Amino acid sequence: MARIDQLSYYPELARRLTALARDGLTNAQIAGRLAAEGFRTPRLNDRFNTGEIQHLIRGLGLRPGLDHDHRTGRGSLAPGQWWLAPLAREIGMPAATLFGWLQRGWVTGQQDTRPPYRWIITADHTEVERLRTLHQLPHGYHNRRRWARTDASTSSSHDKESSNHAKDTLRNSH
Q1: What is the DSSP string of 36-98?
Q2: What is the pLDDT of residues 19-35, one digit of tens each?
Q3: What global pTM score does this model have?
Q4: What CA–CA distance (Å, rounded) separates 86 from 81?
Q5: Overall fold of domain 68-146
Q6: What is the domain partition of the chain in residue ranges?
Q7: pLDDT, position 171
């Protein structure tokens, strides 16, 4: 099955969709117009559904969606505030990971007071750079660091060898 961007008429569909969206039509109205003009889905359905129209519109960058909505329950986002998903993109990390950091207290944020109750993260330029550096640490660094001994009593390779030798001796004695 073809993807929509592989269809022979995709460039024409994209131009028409762009014009209709810029005219301020709703997704349902756009779907109706495209059906009337003979545009079909990749599965040859007679009509695009509103979700498909929304996906195409966002893909073309015509209506960016919730992440670009700067309104909150208390007005506009202040400088140094981000929606969770755009901040994750800025840092170059999955939004789920950033949300985990929020739950651990590694990031400061609060939940918006209006639906869909998205998270607003507080992060100025310095904090964004700190988070980017934190994200670039090796996988498992945060867990290993807690268990690693950093003082002078850290075992040497000789200690490890004799410890292994002692285990072998114990194992062979049975």
Answers
A1: HTT---TT--SS--HHHHHHHHHHTTSS--GGG--EETTEEPPTTEEEHHHHHHHHTS-HHHH
A2: 998 888 888 999 999 99
A3: 0.50
A4: 11
A5: Arc Repressor Mutant, subunit A (1.10.10)
A6: 4-63, 68-146
A7: 46
